[in-house]
Every structure is written in C-alpha cells, then in structure tokens.
C-alpha cells in the first residue's frame, strides 16, 4: 500500500512539473502574487518567511553545498538554452527568408524546390495568372528558377573535404521579386555566361568564392563576379544564369519553381484559385513566408527534442545533487528546526521554507546559466551539415527572452524537486530526538 501511495505521489509530481514548465508567464506571475499575499497575510506565511530568512542567513556557512546546487542548475539551464537557441536560430533564418507578398509555385506534391520539376509549358502559363504584380510595361513579376546541389571545397578543410551548396539558376526577374537582396561586392552575373554571384554566408563556408576566383561546377569552370547579402537563408546559396545552369546540369528547359511578386498579400487567394482551376497545370502554390517556415519545422522539432531530452537527463542529475545537499543541510540544522517546532512553528512553514531555500539557489544557478548561454551563443554562427541534395544552411543561434524564461522555469523545477523530500523529512523530524542531537 505504501508503495502505491509513493508511486501516486511521484506521478502527481511529474504532472505538476509538466504543467509548470508549460505555464505561461501570466500564470507564473499570478502564482507569485498569491504566494506573496499568503506570506504577508497569514500566520503560517509569516512563520515561513521567518524560517526562510534564518536559512538564507546561514548560506555562507554552507557555501560548498550551495555552490553544488547553483552550478548543477546553471549547467542544465546553459546546455538547454544553447541547444534550443540552435533550433530557434535555424527556424528564424528560414522564417526571415519569405514574405507575405511573394508566392512560390512548384509541381504538385513537391515538398521542396529540389524535388520539383516544372515543364516549359507550365513556366509560360503560371506568370499569366491573376494576382501577380506587373511592372511599368505590364509584364508579370515572375521568376522561373532552377535549384540544384553543387559540391564545393569547404573553407579551411582538406583537399578532399567538400560540402553541398545550393546553386540557384535565375533570370533578371529574381532581383525584382526579392528587393531585399543587394550586391555588396562586385557585380551581377551576365546572361548566358558562366558567372556566379555568391551569398555572404556561402562565401564564408566554402573556399574559392571570392570575387575574381574561378570554381568548378559540374564539368565547367565558373567565375565568381559578385557577392550578395539578403539577411536570410538565401545568403547560403550561389546564383547563376538559369539557362547556363540548366545546360551544365542537363535540365533542358525545365525549372524547379516560379517565384512571383503578388499585387498585394490579399491577392494570394486569387492566384491560388486561378492556378488550381487551370486544367493545364498540376501545381501547388504557397506564400514564401509559409513555405520557408514549413521547411524549418522538421529540423527545429528534432533539435528541440534533443535539447529537452539532454536537459531532462542533466536535470535529473542536478535534482539528485540538490537532494543530497539539502538532506545534509537539514541534518546539520536538526536542532535548529526542532527548536522552531518546539516554540510553535508548524510543519508547513518548515516544509515551504526548505523548498524556498533550494528554489532560490536553483534560481540563482538558472540566471547564471542563462547569462553564460546568452554571452557565449547569442549570435554564434553555425551551419547545417550538407548531405545528398540538401545544401548547407548558415544561421545564427538566437537566445531569445522566451528561451531564457523557459530556462528559469526549469531551474525552479529542479529546485522544487531537490527541496521537496528533504523538506518533508525536516517537518517529520521528531522534536525530542532532534533536540538531543548535537
């Protein structure tokens, strides 16, 4: 029976921790205000504040055990925030790539551009659909594009160290549908020539992409004539003339996608309906904002799952460390706790005071871990591993306020678990036995 009761308490504790970690900040603020009101307005609350004050005042005498709790929690929060910042940075880079006033059209059922093939007839028909913006001459702002994977030597690697980069074949319209993309060095490539403009991030990742250098793509030599910046995932690509890229990689007149500028964001529904109703086409259309956000979902979820798993394993270790330290602290203060009980302090104030002390130490550790993670990883540049048909994507870690907040909640959860059982032991300590101890 006792085993079942303990099992039920552990399950209840697990549910409480899950709810706590998922609790938004207004809920946490409400709990803090209610607890503060209880401390100030009730007799047991005032007793709890007094016992907590006594415990906190003796922390200097227990620097070793206090440091174990703080450092253990700081390690958990630091690692958790750093891992989640990687997923956040990856997703943020892709989210910034699209916009609500541009759309991308691909072959029906294609998950990404590298899997899509549009024939020549589709490339001619798609730009004529309603909802697409037009220039001063009345021509549609539509950019048929080809995307292939190319291998290049990795910067700083050996002669055989190559990575996959995304090569995008474009025409003049590509610059008009993406006005945020600017040439920052050199010039644009010329139509019909084997010339490349490279993204800033691609230039940092791969060797030989400086202006004036030549690289081998396919079986041909290409000249690097410019560098562009866009502040998004496109910076990890290299661009060339679409017809020349298609000829090099034997893609004929096909293209992977057509990116269009919408007349306004509300015109997307008009465009989608027109393309769906055209019997000549079997295509899917999406806003680039939604398309690129969707591309990040799978990888971001995997990174988050890994981060939470590693965090949970480390949190269990930190909680056991806090348990050991607080059990030792309770044993060392047995006479003090017994004296408080003897002069009228109840068991509940003692329980809450011990837990508060542990949670305050864990909170300090959480602040330290979050600060270290922010200083070391916020803005840290990284890139995905390239494999198969997927090119490298460069991105920066993002230690957002939400991630720091989540880390602090994890710290408090560790303090809660680490202080709960020692606190219950302190409240159950026989007064007479404890007073006889030294």
UniProtKB/TrEMBL annotation:
Protein name: ABC-type transport system
UniProt-annotated location(s): Cell membrane
Keyword terms, alphabetized: Cell membrane, Membrane, Transmembrane, Transmembrane helix
InterPro entries: ABC3_permease_C, MacB_PCD, Macrolide_Exporter_MacB
Domain named MacB-like periplasmic core: residues: 66-276
Transmembrane feature ranges: 67-86, 302-330, 342-364, 371-390
Keyword Cell membrane: yes
Keyword Transmembrane among record annotations: yes
Annotated ABC3 transporter permease C-terminal domain residues: 310-430
Superkingdom field: Bacteria
Topology in membrane: Multi-pass membrane protein
Pfam family, one: MacB_PCD
A GO-annotated cellular component: plasma membrane
GO MF term list: transmembrane transporter activity
